Structures are given as C-alpha cells and as structure tokens.
Amino acid sequence: MSGHSKWSTIKHKKGALDAKRGKVFTRVLKEITVAARMGGGDVAANARLRLAVDAAKASNMPKENWERAIKKGTGELEGVSYEDVLYEGYGPGGAAIIVEALTDNKNRTTPEIRSFFTKFGNELGASNSVAYMFVKQGQIVVEPEVSEDKVMEVALEAGADDVKDEDGAWVITTDPNSYQAVKDAVDAAKLPVIEAGIVRTASVRVQMAGDKLKSFLKLVDLLEDNDDVQHVWHNADYDEPDE
Question: Most CB atoms closer than 10 Å: which of 11, 157, 169, 183?
Fold first, then answer.
C-alpha cells in the first residue's frame, strides 16, 4: 500500500472493525487459546500469548474473556482445539498473498480459501510458493506528532533495528525476538501507537491500479471476512481508492 493516507486508512479500518467487534474478539480469542496451548498460560513467559493478550487489550476486550481463553488453551476449561494453517498464492495483478488462519476443521477452511482465489481466476500455491518473498518483523507505528529524536532514543536504546518516517508516521522495525522489549519501552515512554505487532514484510513489491486493483481488493475483503482467517499479507503497492 502506498500514499499519504496509509495510516489514516488503518485507523479508518480499525473503526470499521470496531463495528464488528464480535468478529475481532473471536479472532483474538482463537489466537490466545492456541498460544496458551502451545506455550503455556504464563503471559510473561509466552511471547506469542503476550502478543495476543496485547491485541485483546487494544480491542478493549474484557479481561475475563481473554483469561477464560487462556484457561481453555491450557486445558483448565473445556474448549475447541484450533490449528495454525498457512495458505499461499497469487492474486489479481500478480500480487503474492499469504493467508494465516486458525481453524478447527481444515476440511472446511481449505476449500473456502481456495474458492476465493478461484473466483478471481487464481489458484492456491504449494508451500513456500510465495512465503520466501516475505520476512517476519516486529513493527510499531507511532503518531507523527512525537519528535524524531524521542522516537529514535526510545526505540533504538530498546533494541530496534530501524526508525523511519513512512507515510506520515514513525515506523519502528525490530527483529521478532526483540519486538516485545521495544514495545514495552514504547509503552513505558507513553508514545502514542497507531498499531503494533509481528508482520510479514515483502522484499518485492507489485504496483497495482485500475481493474486489477479493484479485483485484488475484493479478494482481500473476502479473505479477511472469513471467520478462520487471522491475517492477510500481500506485496501489493497502491494508492487508496476514493471512498
């Protein structure tokens, strides 16, 4: 995505998601359950769980909701068993797409995801057919009114890899293993955060416009609306279409 409206668009999307808070809560609770099952229920000692709990807090989820999800993950309460699934493929305009999902039934989820790609004349790819173009990074986006010196001081001292001005905001990038330490430092300094988390950043970008962009955005919308999908990553660059 490109253009000065990138982070304002994210805020707009967050507002739209707030209107569908039930769906947001469901996705976060799934992630908390899986994280607790895989790494235990101690938030301080389980990095994946801590990230998920941060997401729960950011979405204003009641504490009792995410605490119950942790107990379901650790087996203290009965719950559904979910598994991580990664789907890869190319969409309209040749954009590479990675879909991260959590599902209790791959026999349901896989055909649904495949049908979305097929709808736009594309197919799911084999493992690592596009994933090799993406690298995992920690990313923390800070509001632009904070001075560059302040952001640099807090982030780099905490172990961040880089701080840059991107589309009207400060974007802090980190190694995934350093993400939580940097995020804690940013929070302690009370820097206003637009969004934060572990992302997949593409090494090669594809410019999108016109009808191909419209089709691409429709595909992404279908994927993101699926109840089992947690994240959709892609390498498309485009200016936000007019509302």
Answer: 183
Using the predicted structure, report yes or no on whether residue 151 has a pLDDT greater than 70: yes
Find the DSSP H helices in the chain: 6-18, 21-39, 47-58, 63-74, 106-119, 148-157, 179-188, 210-225
Look at strands 236-237 and 96-103 and give their pairing: unpaired
Q: How many CA atoms lie within 13 A of 71 on its CB side?
A: 9
Give the Cβ contact number of residue 131 at 10 Å.
15
**What are the structural domains, with CATH classification, of the chain?**
6-74 (1.10.10.200), 83-132+204-237 (3.30.70.980), 133-202 (3.30.70.980)
Q: What angle do CA 98, 101, 105 make, to 5 degrees?
A: 135
Residue 1: strand, helix, or coil: coil
pLDDT at residue 5 in the model: 43
Q: What is the pLDDT of residue 4?
A: 37
Q: Closest Cα to residue 233, out of 202, 203, 210? A: 202
The pTM is what? 0.85
| 57-84 exposure pattern, b = at least 16 Cβ within 10 A, e = fewer | eebebeeeebebbbbbbbeeeebeebee
Collapsed DSSP state (helix, strand, coil) of residue 161: coil
53, 71 Cβ separation under 8 angstroms: no
Between 219 and 1, where is the model more confident?
A: 219
Q: Tokens at residue 190, please?
A: 């009370």
Spatial CB neighbours of 213, under 8 Å, sequence gap ≥ 6: 92, 93, 236, 238, 241
Other Cβ atoms closer than 10 A to 158: 19
